[in-house]
Amino acid sequence: MHGRRRVVEVDAVGVDAGEGRGDGAGGHERPTRGSRRDAAARRGARPLWLTALTVVALAAVVLHLGATYLWVRPSTPVSSAVNAPLRSYMLPLFQQNWSLFAPNPVADQYLLEVRGVSKDLTTTPWLTPSADELEGLRHSVLPDRTVRLTSELSRSAARAINGLPDEAEKYVGWNYHYDAWNRLRDDMASTNHGSVSTAIDTALGYDEVLTLYATQFLAATPHDGIDVTYVQYRIVRDQTESYYSTARGTTSRTTVVTSGRRPLETRPGQDRKGFSAFVDSQGSR
Predict the structure, then answer these.
(1) What is residue 83's three-state secondary structure?
(2) Fewest CB within a 10 Å sphere: which of 130, 149, 200, 243?
(3) Tell me, what's the pLDDT at 283?
(4) What percent of the chain has pLDDT over 70?
């Protein structure tokens, strides 16, 4: 009896030991707590480059959302302090506004027209780069944001010019064949509206940008032998009336802001060949 019990006990110990060592039929090694932690760590480990890429992507999203928030909210000391870099980042690709939503959805369209003028005041026809750009929207599921560049530029320029006092706004339509913007600023400042000097600077900035654009656009288009010396721009606003005005028979109205003659203007770094290729791609020729 004692011998038999000892054999059974030895066999039981052997089975247990076999299970722990993985010996014997059907034996499996039991994972320890440390080995389980190591396996979990190996499964959860990420490459360093993937972690760095994730951090950079999250930072870019946070910065973009922060810039968009500062851009769309009313002006604050913070947004005013970073206005220059904020504008250079948001325009033209990330321009944000709520013009599609009630209570005041967008009800107008702005078009930019330009023409050249020779020294003897012969003019080219008015050309409409905005209409050519908008053709890029047709039959395009994901159109490039730049196809609305001149429409957005014209909208902002018209608002800046219309925001001037009448005595200052009239000078936009005057002809300045040399030193245009210094003389324009002096004439506008002579109206004794010192309190609107910022508005004057903003309007003159848009006047200069539109002149630069007109110069480059006309350089990329043929003129039937006309030697262009000056340029003009014209902002055409087609406004659709409200439902109540339409019911009374009024469907739309058009207002026009026309500049005087300006000298041809360029800036270092402008890519004339690239711009000409862009005009060709829009079917302007």
Answers:
(1) helix
(2) 243
(3) 59
(4) 67
Structure tokens of 65? 């959302």
Chain-centroid distance of CA 195 in Å reads 31
User: What pairing do the DSSP bridges indicate for beta strands 108-118 and 228-240?
Assistant: antiparallel
Q: Using a CB cutoff of 8 Å and minimum separation of 24, what contacts does 214-218 make?
A: 214/114, 214/262, 215/264, 215/265, 215/266, 216/266, 216/270, 216/272, 216/275, 217/114, 217/127, 217/129, 217/275, 217/279, 217/284, 218/114, 218/115, 218/116, 218/124, 218/127
The residue to which tokens 């003009």 are assigned: 232
CA distances for 272 relative to 99, 128, 233, 277, angstroms: 34, 19, 19, 9
Distance CA 201, CA 161 (A): 10
Q: How far apart are CA 7 and CA 24, in angstroms?
A: 17
Helix (H, G, I), strand (E, B) or coil at 118: strand
Give me the mean pLDDT over the 21-34 stretch: 54
Lookup: tokens for 53: 């890429």
Distance of CA 191 to the CA centre of its chain: 36
What letters, b where the CB count within 10 A reaches 16 and e where it falls short, cover 100-135? Answer: eeeeeeeeebbbbbbbbbeeeeeebeebbbbbbbbe
Per-residue pLDDT band for 7 (boundaries 50, 70, 90) equals: very low
Q: DSSP characters for 7-76?
A: HHHHHHHHHHHHHHHT-STT--PPPPHHHHHHHHHHHH---HHHHHHHHHHHHHHHHHHHHHHHHHSPP-
Q: Which of 8-22, 78-92, 139-153 has the highest mean pLDDT?
A: 78-92
Task: Give me the residues paired with residue 256 across strands.
Answer: 236
Contact predicate 181/208, CB 8 Å: yes
